[in-house]
Amino acid sequence: MKEKADPARDEHAAYPEVHASRRPRPDGERTQTLVFLHGGMTGNWSWHRQVEAFGDYRVLTPHLPGYGARRDEEWGGLDSAADDAAAFIADRVEAGRVHLVGIGLGGLVGLQVLARHPELVDTAFLSGVPAAAPAASARTGAAARLRIWGGEWFARMQAGAFGVLESAENDAVAPATARAVAEDVAAAVLPAGLEEFDGPVLLTAGAKEPQHIRKGLAPLEGRFGAAQVRIAPGLHHAWNLEEPLLFNAAVRRWAERREAHPRLGEPA
Questions:
Q1: Where does the record place the region Disordered (predicted)?
Q2: What pLDDT score was predicted for residue 41?
Q3: Is 56 a member of any domain?
Q4: CB contact burial 180-213 (16+ within 10 A = b; e otherwise)
Q5: Fewer CB within 10 Å: N-end or C-end of the chain?
Q6: Is residue 2 part of a domain?
Q7: pLDDT, tens digit, for every residue of 199-211?
Q8: pTM above 0.90, yes or no
Q9: How far does the chain reach from its first CA to its final CA, in angstroms?
Q10: Nearest CA to 185 among 212, 159, 150, 207?
């Protein structure tokens, strides 16, 4: 696939958006593309353990609007973010469909991509998607987190805690972006058209995630023709960082074999 540089988006990024494959696939087939959409309280740097593990793939880790090198951009809503991500993918992938992975906010954006641009996606692996409205107590907690979310020190603390050596003030999220994203997440409505996506979808959540996220999995599963639901035992929301070996193995098994990893449990 031909690389298309985009200096305007990548010049000041604390973490790159495009990661070329570093080794051929074991089966000798053409290199495929994985796209990772980050959560609302992190940035694209949160996928660094996945970038390290998928050297036989071409990996895209786009900044969502208002994050990272795009901190000065306005958050325009979930549908706008999905169109933005789809344009990013289409501009960089000239052959074949991608394997889409999203967590939290990235999962919500991923749902919009599946509904609005299904032709781009082969398989989808979505985790911790807040598809059901949170309880009042959860909304109160989210409002409290907004008071610290997005500051430069907070971005550095998160990146350092998860072992990212290069963290910059560009990873901070503007307060206006934080508020707008939180409002969209709290009021998220499942997009129309999910039924039209006919590829395999794996919907996951950590067993220690908030109850409303786990409860939202079943109705979300019903919106797809070929979806499965699994729970990551003993893990929290950001289990791509908490337990990267399991997360990476689960993503690989789903992308390559369309099978849920056996360590992921059935929902209670």
A1: 1-29
A2: 84
A3: yes
A4: bbbebbeebebbeebeebebbbbbbbbbebbeeb
A5: C
A6: no
A7: 999 999 999 999 8
A8: no
A9: 43
A10: 212
Distance CA 174, CA 66 (A): 7
Q: What is the CATH number of the domain that holds 159?
A: 3.40.50.1820
Angle made by CA atoms 255, 213, 231, in degrees to the nearest 5: 45
Torsion angles phi and psi, residue 196, rounded to 5: -80, -20
* CA 214 – CA 210 distance, rounded (Å): 7
- Beta carbons of 120 and 97 less than 8 angstroms apart: yes
Is residue 118 a contact partner of residue 54, using CB atoms and an 8 Å limit?
A: no
Tell me, what's the pLDDT at 137?
Answer: 52
Q: Provide the percentage of residues in the chain whose pLDDT is more than 70.
A: 80
CA distance 102 to 107: 4
| Amino acid in position 111 | L
* Residue listed under structure tokens 């709290």: 186
Strands of the chain, DSSP E: 18-19, 33-37, 58-60, 98-103, 121-127, 201-206, 227-232
3-state secondary structure of 34: strand
Residue 222 banded pLDDT, cuts 50, 70, 90? very high
Q: Which residue has the tokens 């003030």?
A: 169
Q: Residue 84 corresponds to which tokens in the numbers above?
A: 């933005």
In tens, the pLDDT along 77-92 reads 999 999 999 999 999 9
Backbone angles phi, psi at 60, to 5 degrees: -115, 130
Residue 169: predicted pLDDT: 44
Rounded mean pLDDT, 177-190: 87
Q: What is the pLDDT of residue 7?
A: 36
Query: Distance (Å, rounded) from C-alpha 114 to C-alpha 123?
Result: 10
* 53 within some domain: yes
**Number of compact structural domains in the chain:** 1
